[in-house]
Write a structure and sequence with these properties.
There is one protein chain. The protein has 347 residues and is an alpha+beta fold. It has 2 domains: 103 residues, Nucleic acid-binding proteins (OB fold (Dihydrolipoamide Acetyltransferase, E2P), Beta Barrel); 193 residues, Orthogonal Bundle (Hypothetical protein af1432), CATH 1.10.3210. The protein contains 12 helices and 8 strands. Strands 1, 2, 3, 4, 5 and 6 form a 6-stranded mixed β-sheet that branches. Strands 7-8 form a two-stranded antiparallel ribbon. Helix 4 runs antiparallel to helix 5 and helix 6 runs antiparallel to helix 7.
Amino acid sequence: MSDEGCHTIAEIRDLCRDSATGASVRAQIDDLAKKDSSNGKPYWELKLRDATDSLTLRAWSDTEAFALCRDLTRGACVEVVGEFSINGGFGLDARRWRMRLLDEEETRALFEGNPQDAAAMEKDFADVESMVAQLGDPRLAALCTAFLADFGPRFKRAAAARRNHHAHRGGLLRHTAQMMRSALAVCSAYPSLNRDVLLAGALFHDTGKLWEMCPPEQGFDIPRDIRGELLGHISIGVELVNTLWRKLPLDDWRDLHPATEEVRLHLLHLVAAHHGELQYGSPVEPKTPEAIALHMIDNLDARLEMFTMAYARQPEIAPGIHDRFHPLNTSPVKPLVHFQAPPDAEE
């Protein structure tokens, strides 16, 4: 088996939408358990995960993979080659599949991502750095710069959620970068908004997830963390802003307007209020235009990502209509394609 023709789990799911397809995938074993079928036949159940999705396979006792599973442990990285298909209500499945362990170099490459995904991540991070460099308020610029310098690698691998949106390694960076781009567009339409505090709020709003849901350096699983469980990402984000703020040269900014303490409080409010309502976990509701804008931008990006997930994962139950997607609480309909002028009109 080689890396030629390797696909991500999400790509294979898309390829199998209409018919079975032969393919290979490289992923990490997220869970491994020996079980018995209803007729007493033993098998191993493997849950594989990569940066895009997860896949559950069963290795029966009469296959080569069954013997290999005895020596595998959770966290091992493997390549699987087989015939993949969408199996009714069971989702993505594979037949006549075989498996091997990845070597050290292949494992490293798996966590770095394919060249396209790695380039997209680097672009997102570079865009975040560029938008931070545009901040006019030196206090917010220094705070954001310090965060990226101290926590950049962790920021690049954290997830934005466990299930509903951007629920994968690197998802938080993608979510944050898109929110900051959206914030710039919103500020262009509503110039009365404080662009600096809105951009900083977009950067910091979910930074508590660096502890609440961050995969290890070599892992796709999102483990539970005692700090995240006890405090939640909003409380951790508020603590992080305050911790970094105390390290800034605050005496240098005594005469700036608005006052430094006002800037800190308004940024903290954006972090604390970004869920929008008390019932959704925010300790306070949005009380400023920037806070409500941040909440709306956050919700917009999350929901658009949910539509992308629904189109990729939910089968069509009628032409252009996908099966119900519970995070959206609806049956998504394919969007209208972009208008294309007829060739004659372009001449």
